[in-house]
Amino acid sequence: MTSRSSKTIRYRPIGVVRSPFTRSDEAPIQPRYAADAAGRAEIWPEFEGGLADLEGFSHIILIYHLDRSGPARLRVKPFLQDVERGVFATRAPCRPNPVGMSVVELVAREGRTLHLKGVDMLDETPLLDIKPYVSRFDCWQTTRDGWQNEVDEETARRRGRRTASAPAATDPAAPDGGES
Fold it and tell me: Which one is the CATH code of 10-134+145-160: 3.90.1150.10, 2.40.160.10, 3.40.50.1950, 2.40.30.70?
């Protein structure tokens, strides 16, 4: 007898993300540090009907396949620290299921094209889903941010923007950089 949880799961992209970033060491590590990075989501024609009413939202959640993330690892050194952490306590792309998520600003919709700001993913990233960001549901005022609270905002901002003082994402000790 096969358990439902052990079945193969298959997804197909609904489109592709276009961004100015072709290498992970160019991309900001999170949308927060990519506010000026413009990009777009190009949705395949058969999914255009699903975009109805989306332009009423200022922000959307993009869910995508981290197609260049490398092999899965259970312990990683996140980009913001030099301490090894469990992959599920990070946003490292080298996950057992390489799925990324970013909240981006929806600037405009032009037919099947969504114009975006705050893009932190690589060009030609396969897009799996889009959800509206709804502050009523998605914004929590009181949170515990685990080890992230150990990283001051200036360090996060400097490393998040990929300055010279930040380790390159191609460095195996820093697998949390790039796609989120």
Answer: 2.40.30.70
